[in-house]
């Protein structure tokens, strides 16, 4: 698909209307979050770089470790990710939360590698104020393209794999709550109050009576 002038103009006007560069994040209940995103095939033309820059600013301002285009109301298969990790605590973190450099995912897809799964609390900028335990593949094979159109084909493990799954699910019209143990659902305040001593959700699972898949 060549540049779509009408679509490009609409996105450009949207960016211009938010001159600080930080865009409003769509919350659960908005239809765009439940529709599969359109394959990106050049619809934005030379506006793509500005669009991605605004997405990164919005992700960092939130703050978050990933943002998919539908979360700002644009139904294209594009996401940005970044995570500083947990520094010196990485070796002992059961989430395997290693750093993820700033990167762009265009038309990403993933498949599980092996049979191992891990269950941890995760949240979402489009479900503001809450977190829940989600069981996900420990390792995934990521395919797609980067910002320059180069093909991606790599395996990620631990928290980076979780981020990829979470953001790619957005592009499929899915929210993390679709995969969560709903008995684990917690406000951020109560997560900090009751369950923040360790990233391991085993104690929460025992007390709140939900399985760790």
Automatic annotation (TrEMBL):
Any one of the GO BP annotations: translation
CC cofactor: Fe(2+)
GO molecular function, one term: peptide deformylase activity
Active-site residue list: 167
Residues that hold Fe cation according to the record: 124, 166, 170
Annotated Pfam families: Pep_deformylase
Enzyme class: hydrolase
Reactions that this protein is recorded to catalyse: N-terminal N-formyl-L-methionyl-[peptide] + H2O = N-terminal L-methionyl-[peptide] + formate
EC number in record: 3.5.1.88
Record's keyword annotation contains Isomerase: no
CDD domains: Pep_deformylase (cd00487)
Keywords in alphabetical order: Hydrolase, Iron, Metal-binding, Protein biosynthesis
Entry-linked InterPro entries: Peptide_deformylase, Peptide_deformylase_sf
Cofactor note: Binds 1 Fe(2+) ion.
Function per UniProt: Removes the formyl group from the N-terminal Met of newly synthesized proteins. Requires at least a dipeptide for an efficient rate of reaction. N-terminal L-methionine is a prerequisite for activity but the enzyme has broad specificity at other positions.
NCBIfam families: PRK00150.1-3
Family: Belongs to the polypeptide deformylase family.
Protein's name in the database: Peptide deformylase
Organism annotation: Sanguibacter gelidistatuariae
Gene giving rise to this polypeptide: def
